[in-house]
Design a protein that fits this description.
Blueprint lengths: L1 H42 L2 H27 L6
Length: 78
């Protein structure tokens, strides 16, 4: 009887250790996916999208200003 109880105790302990090990490995594989999804969802936030659109428009205006400066710049060596 004592042998059966010891065997049952060992099975419970080893099963718990195996389950914890599997869950840790699964969490290590799943959390980066969850983080990436949360980052993707955050990227779709309207406030973030408007900030990105504004910064894109600002960058476009700056680039247009630089190209017009290059066009209007006097030629020095000719």
């Amino acid at each position: 009887m004592l042998g059966l109880m010891t065997l049952l105790f060992l099975v419970i302990i080893l099963g718990t250790c195996a389950l914890v090990s599997v869950l840790r490995r699964a969490r290590a594989e799943v959390w980066p996916t969850i983080d990436a999804f949360a980052e993707f969802r955050g990227a779709l936030d309207p406030a973030v999208l408007s900030l990105r659109r504004d910064s894109f428009e600002t960058a476009r205006r700056l680039e247009q200003g630089r190209s017009s400066q290059r066009i209007n710049a006097p030629s020095l060596g000719r």
